[in-house]
Amino acid sequence: MNNEKKNPPVRRMPSGPGNPGVPGAMGGKVRKATVKRLFSYMFQYKLHFIAVVVCIIASAATGAVSSLFLQKLIDGYITPLLMASAPDYSGLVRIILLMAGIYLVGVVATLLYNRLMAVISQGVLKKIRDDMFARMQALPIRYFDTHSHGDVMSHYTNDTDALRQMISQAIPQIFSSVITLVSVFFAMLYISVWLTLFVIAYIFVMKKVISVIAGRSRGHFVRQQEALGDLNGYIEEMINGQKVVKVFCHEEKAKEIFDGKNKELEMNARLANRYANILMPILISLGYVLYVVLAIAGALMDIGHVPNLSLTGTGALTLGMIASFLQLSRNFSGPIGQVSQQLNAIIMAMAGAERIFKLMDEEPEQDSGYVTLVNVRREGDALVETAARTELWAWKHPHTDGTLTYTELKGEVRFYDVDFGYEENKRVLHNISLFAKPGQKVAFVGATGAGKTTITNLINRYYDIADGKIRYDDININKIRKSDLRRSLGIVLQDVNLFTGTVMDNIRYGRLDATDEECIAAAKLANADGFIRMLPKGYQTVLSGDGSGLSQGQRQLISIARAAVADPPVMILDEATSSIDTRTEAHVQRGMDSLMKGRTVFVIAHRLSTVQNANVIMVLEHGEIIERGTHEALIAEKGKYYQLYTGVFELE
Amino acid sequence: MIKQLAGSLRQYRKNTVLTPIFVTVEVIMEVVIPLLMSRLIDYGITARNMNYVVGMGCALLVCAVLSLAAGVIAGHHSAFASAGFAANLRRDMYHRVQDFSFSNIDKYSTSSIITRLTTDVTNLQNAFMMIIRMASRSPLMLIFSLAASFSIDTRLSLIFLAMIPVLGFGLWFIISKVHPIFMRVFKTYDRLNNIVQENLRGIRVVKSFVREDYEIKKFAGVSEVIYDDFSKGEKINAFNMPLMQLCTYACMLLISWFGAKAIVASGGNPIGGLSTGELMSLITYTMSILISLMMLSMVFIMITISRASAERVVEVLNEESDLKNPPAPVTAVPDGSIGFENVCFTYSSLADKPVLTGIDLKIGSGETVGILGGTGSSKTSLVQLIPRLYDATAGRVTVGGVDVRDYDIETLRDSVAMVLQKNELFSGTIKENLRWGNPSASDEELVRVCRLAQADGFIQEFPDKYDTYIEQGGTNVSGGQKQRLCIARALLKKPKILILDDSTSAVDTGTEALIRRAFLAELPETTKIIIAQRISSVQDADKIIVLDDGLVSATGTHDTLLETSQIYREVYESQMKGGKVNE
């Protein structure tokens, strides 16, 4: 449990590229590739998508027609009716029924595209989520060692959330706004070109205003996100160490630093929100100004009998036309405001998408292995592959000349002059050679950081060696398919990780088709059966939060049982019993011994008592094997091992 | 709950009140403007009265400026109020958490406190801003628009009155259907995140058992549930817009029909009956009324969603620390002697079995005491009572002859340094981390304690030595190095009592022996309590306490315990196994 719990700040927005730089129209530096890729997800719903486009057009057109309707109503019906001595309402009835029909289509179209969008957006999100998780599973251990878990988590939470908002709300909203704008614009041209010129001038003013305000807002917005990340990071760190804070009476200092960061966030949040808040009132007021300007211009044209120019030709500007145009102008400012409100959402989502795609594009674990593990049956001297589950396993090795050979899985591991470093020019292991015969117990002893765990990381190829060779049953492990290699290795780590589920599920994790009886037998072997039966529901007790209800020692016992169920020919025990007190360990020992019997076992332990009966003990120092031999031989040698060993009992 | 949250407004109360006031002005303008617009059409354009058009236009511009001013001021205040409210909430909660006792901390998981301080506060901030802006806007808009339309034409306005219940009922129906679905979705999201988290932490397990596909399937299963529920919810939500449109369009058509008839009937005279301009105003109001209803429903949804967050925040705010300073606290610890008098302890009143029972101990000042016992024998629980991290359920714990409950907590904890089993370093330099023990310690002092804790050696090997930056959680130092830094940090307090809770488990035995020797030589006055797994860590102690299942099973020196305590002997033998063969 030592360094596993790092939950660094959850950053909502990275400060890297792809971030809003240029304010204004459609979010500055959104990368084209990201947009394209996002759309490729949506285009998987091609038919849905086409239907959505059609429906949005229909819905927006209905809105525009509705504005024209007013003109028709006034000019075509109300005014003539006013003149008529005996008003005939049948025409009015017809147009109203016609409009009702159009409206109905519009409403249905709106309903349809909203429902389709729900399917598309959720489908896309599910696909992205699933892809992301599958890709993540394929990443090498190195990735997980070098990336903070909190950061990766935020891809699934914050980033996906931002995407959801964008896909399900911003995109249809913007799309529909744009279509509304276009159709309103044509409707305006249809009425009067002159008046439309005013609208065009107005668009330019509006654009300028939006870009100025959005630009200012964005600067603060980025700073707000940074301050938020900073504060959240501080909160996470402090709350995680809250007990230490208490023990050191560090509360006041912790409050002081918190208050500073909190203030910083408040200042930025306040400014960012202020600019966002005043955008709408400004746009609305500008809309009023446009209205007044248009009214005056319209009146002037009407009074001055200026010939009107419209898409349908020239003619007089009627009263209904002016009224209708004014109504249209009100429909114009609304969508612009809506689009500008969605910009932030889009920028956030794009930043999120970029982060998600970055995770997906990480280099997956390379596996060029072609030697596989298969069940075999013995026929005379030969090994014959079989689909049935036998107790006999073999490496199936296809050769370049087309022949196949089967090598029995025995569990022999050899290292030849292996060098390795986690970083390019920082060697952790030098010249490691070792030889573990099937059924042998090999122990690694040495100070923290001497490279013990690193060696085991190489055997199951969590990391690949820089130089040298590792052979497994005399096959270069690079040739073995990783999944098969790992299936043949059992590993019990110091930091136990359990999964949410019953105790039984957790044990069965070792071999999914194990029966309950087999799981219980494994638990008995690991000496875990006793305490498991004491749990409220025995084997059916549900563990959550990484088995938080159990002690560290109990969790280790379960993880030993889990490895026992897998029944692999080679086992790696990395400080597997470090949290079990020595007395209990002595009790477990018998089980451990029977667990280890007939297997090649690599043991890493602090307690020398755990490793004394090993066939060979390797003493590591600074990545080199400095001594090797049996316990007795090493004691006789009076070297480092002797010092370590006597260090334990130094006062005797 | 609301009262509690409102308490965090403090200096932003003014902004909070001003926001709706200016929003009101904005709304009034928004209602007046269409009225003026209709007049402009009726008396200006229709009458071809240019002066009227210009005059009314100017009036409109004035209104537009007023509306702009009010809107900007309201936006400003609401931004101040909501950012301030959130900051105050975070501050109140954080300060409250700082006052938590260990048992308060245990009650909440770390991640739940973090979520409350981050996500929940952000939710509340958004909801709060929405409420102070919308909650006044929508009802006012609704009332004013209704009033205005009634003033234009009472009979036509009845159409609205008929439509409001239809829309209201429709919205209510949608919300009541969707709400439970979304609540379920959020729960499922937790499950999904849990899977991701477990996979991140246990990736070595997943890979070593080759369970990638199994995990992918598990994830996809939950992901599918989210997809199903979420799209179901959104599909129902999809009725919102069309319903709104349906009502708007119906109103418009009805108003057009009846309006046209009314205009014709009145001969288009705005004084007597309905005019063209008025008809247009009515249609504008149709939009306003329906939009404000829509907004109201959004506010309503927002409130229900943020209610969960509010409850979680208030829970923290209301959490009372169960450890309080006594009224007249003792502010000096005389010496490092410790006494346990018939102490019992349970973590929670619900637990049926006490963790510690009938503990009686006397530890003299300056003694070295070892505590030994199996996993779960309550070693940690025992020592946590000394710096009063928890209060004993029954009995008395004394330090320097004074009941720990009579001390000023800070005085007590400064004198009792405890190195926790699960210890933390914080991001910052080694120096900064060490100075947690004593902010005013000199550099020489730091080196001195690090020598004692056998940390100076490896620190000197770092390129930046004492200025080496420690990453969050101390991930860039090894487990053993971390433990030694934590010990040095505790030593800096110059404590009267030093408690090491399995604090050298990752330190190799040779180094550990050096640390012990240094303690003996350099800290003779300090009472040292050492919890350990290794016999070697405690066997030279003045006194060894063997705990078993919450009871003191035996006390004595190494030699006497070997004779008298079976448990001790078993532990000893388990660690000596094989060793004897050679001796």
TrEMBL record, chain A:
Domain ABC transporter: start-end pairs: 413-647
Region Disordered: start-end pairs: 1-25
Subcellular location field: Cell membrane
GO cellular component: plasma membrane
PROSITE patterns: ABC_TM1F (PS50929), ABC_TRANSPORTER_1 (PS00211), ABC_TRANSPORTER_2 (PS50893)
SUPFAM superfamilies from the UniProt entry: ABC transporter transmembrane region (SSF90123), P-loop containing nucleoside triphosphate hydrolases (SSF52540)
A GO molecular function held by the record: ATP binding
InterPro entries: AAA+_ATPase, ABC1_TM_dom, ABC1_TM_sf, ABC_transporter-like_ATP-bd, ABC_transporter-like_CS, P-loop_NTPase, Type_1_exporter
Residue intervals passing through the bilayer: 47-71, 91-113, 278-300
Keywords: ATP-binding, Membrane, Nucleotide-binding, Transmembrane, Transmembrane helix, Transport
Main location: membrane
Membrane-topology descriptor: Multi-pass membrane protein
Ranges where the ABC transmembrane type-1 domain occurs: 50-348
SMART domains: AAA
Protein name: ATP-binding cassette, subfamily B
Organism of provenance: Sporobacter termitidis DSM 10068
From TrEMBL, chain B:
CDD domains, sorted: ABC_6TM_Tm287_like
InterPro entries named in the record: AAA+_ATPase, ABC1_TM_dom, ABC1_TM_sf, ABC_transporter-like_ATP-bd, ABC_transporter-like_CS, P-loop_NTPase, Type_1_exporter
Membrane disposition: Multi-pass membrane protein
Annotated ABC transporter domain residues: 338-574
Entry's transmembrane regions: 21-41, 53-74, 134-152, 158-175, 246-267, 279-303
Location within or outside the cell: Cell membrane
Superkingdom per UniProt: Bacteria
Any one Gene Ontology molecular-function term assigned to this protein's record: ATP binding
KW Transmembrane helix (keyword) present: yes
Gene3D superfamilies: ABC transporter type 1, transmembrane domain, P-loop containing nucleotide triphosphate hydrolases
Chain ranges of the ABC transmembrane type-1 domain: 17-304
Pfam families tied to this protein: ABC_membrane, ABC_tran
Protein name listed in UniProt: ATP-binding cassette, subfamily B
